[in-house]
Amino acid sequence: MQHARDVSVTTDPTTPNREEAAKVRILPGPQSRDRTAPAWLMPLSVLFTLASEGCAAAIAILPIFFHSLVAVGGETLLAPLLLFLAVVPLVGILVFDFGYARAFGGFRQARTRAAAIVRAALAVVVALALTAMHPILAGPFTLAALIGLLLSWGANRLVAREPGWDTLPQEAVSVLAGRDATGWRLATTTPGRSTIADSAGRVTALFALASGFATASWLTATGVMNGAAVASAGLLCYWAARAFSGFFDQLFAPSDEQATSAISVAELPLAQDQGESDGLNIARLSVFDRDGRAVLSDVNLDIAPGQIVGLTGGNFAGKSLLLRSIAAPFDLTDLDVRGAVTIGGQSPWQRSGRDRQVPAVLIPPSPLWLPGTAADNLCCFGDDLDLQQAMQALKQLVYTTDTVDRVSAGTAVAMLSTSEQKALSLARGFYLRPRVYLMDRPEDGATPALTAALARRIQQECRMGAIFLIASDNREIMDLCDQVVVMQGGRIIDVGTAEDIRTQKDIGWRRLRAARSLESEEALDSWLRSQFRRDGDDGNRRNVCVIASELLAFSCQDLAPGETGGKVTFEFKHFESYCMVRMLDSGQPVSSGYLEKMQSQAEQGDGVQRLAPLAAVMRDALSVEARRERQDSIAEDDGEAAHRVIEVKIATYDPRKPRSQGEQAG
């Protein structure tokens, strides 16, 4: 085991000053354009789109011949011939679009975006050509472009998106009973485009059609244009408006990544000493929901290479959220991420969808896999050499050849058992050989033999300098940890060895460590309130929180304004009819004379406008003791040889039992 100094865990409540705020960077998330695409996609997109839209232009020009030859010239036999000629470009559109889709299969978003750009460029060319014939013909195109711009912006940015399916009460039973996966997918998927976006495009195109007819008809009436061209002019305006609307939709509509991504990811500046860390450094990492409520608060971790750190805590403590924030902050849907994370001095947040060498790997409770064989998923669709290396990692985790044979035989991932999928997920993580392993409940779905093999492999990787941050409740895995971080309500409330944390829990003591600052009062209040979970405990919560707040104020009263004095530790334990609260900090010892003075002030409290913090504690508590303790009674990483301890006994009541009038008044 390493010493606690190798893992620094603090809570920094400070906010960036103006100079730091100027250095905050809002990071762009990975987009479809960042993902791998052939270099020749755009040139071929131009060719396919030109061919397809050329066919569409031929359809728009045909009305000239229908009007002049059939309607005016009376050549009725030419009508079916011209109709047959119209079928040729229509078939051409189908052929070119089908070939385009087949040539760029798997690149649908890139294909759609490229085609929209080319169509808009062609629309501009057509508009310029008609404008050269007569300046007034620029009017319908210009108005269509402006209206399309405004309507597309409003439809995609101002109109709320609706879910794919509004689940009715009678339908929810089937979904939640696991009998309707399609319904669940529809109900939880929000389309990227607004439902009114199609209407906006249709309105723009119809307006262009009408304005094109109007303009061409006026020019015909004034003798500038042949009447045969009226229909063609209207159709070209209609086509150009659809092209403009498609381009603006690509410009304003949120992409699939944006529809399921974080609101923003802001990288805060690191202190000079923090940027030099060789391991995993997390500074001031916070996550907020859309209403601004913190779901992860000011997390600071500094983990040296070769360390194993465990995360523990109750449900909704923030363990999984912390791991996901480190590995993939852009994937936190509708959340706002702020802070800084570095691995060996480099940020893992600045990434691309093309990365194959990764600094950190997140292994979630449920294995991740892509459509394909188990072998492809094991080696991340690499070559034969990659597969051999990945198979070696798998063989070290499973002791039966059945799983290895099934993977080698090209079995689909979906056909593997739950434990085999888990083994494949873990083996893939070790094959990638990142500097940091982020494991979220690795014991889920794993057999005891797989868990034991995982524990051995973790120890091997640590000897080579790898870092592990593991959220787990498994005793075997947690015993590997050099340090265990306890989380509650999105905050780090304690840190120690696995044995230390387990001992504290077994003897009934709970512990919170926070910055020695008045800004830690919110964390202290939240932690204490969680100790009283029974109905009717409001009075207990209020009384204990008030006393603890005064203790925190007493701890901070000898600090200069804006100064932080290291850390302060609070410990709490329930007893029958009372509870104990201890505060441990690095302040000056409390003399017996000062205690007597505070006691006297507490007894005269009615005549004192504002009691000193310790006097307020003595007024509301059953007893107060102050002493000095040596370092060995608490964590070694606090950096002090001895600590000041204030121990307070506070009366509590059992809400399940009737209270006397005196207790109720208290």
UniProtKB/TrEMBL annotation:
Keyword flag Iron-sulfur: no
UniProt-listed Enzyme Commission number(s): 3.6.3.-
Domain ABC transporter span(s) in chain numbering: 280-514
TM regions (residue ranges): 40-66, 78-100, 112-130
Region described as Disordered: spans on this chain: 1-27
Database matches in PROSITE patterns: ABC_TRANSPORTER_2
Keywords, alphabetical: ATP-binding, Hydrolase, Membrane, Nodulation, Nucleotide-binding, Transmembrane, Transmembrane helix, Transport
GO molecular function: ATP binding; ATP hydrolysis activity
Record-linked InterPro entries: ABC_transporter-like_ATP-bd, ABC_transporter_ATP-binding, P-loop_NTPase
Keyword ATP-binding: yes
Family of this protein: Belongs to the ABC transporter superfamily.
Descriptive protein name: Autoinducer 2 import ATP-binding protein LsrA
Species whose genome carries this gene: Phaeobacter italicus
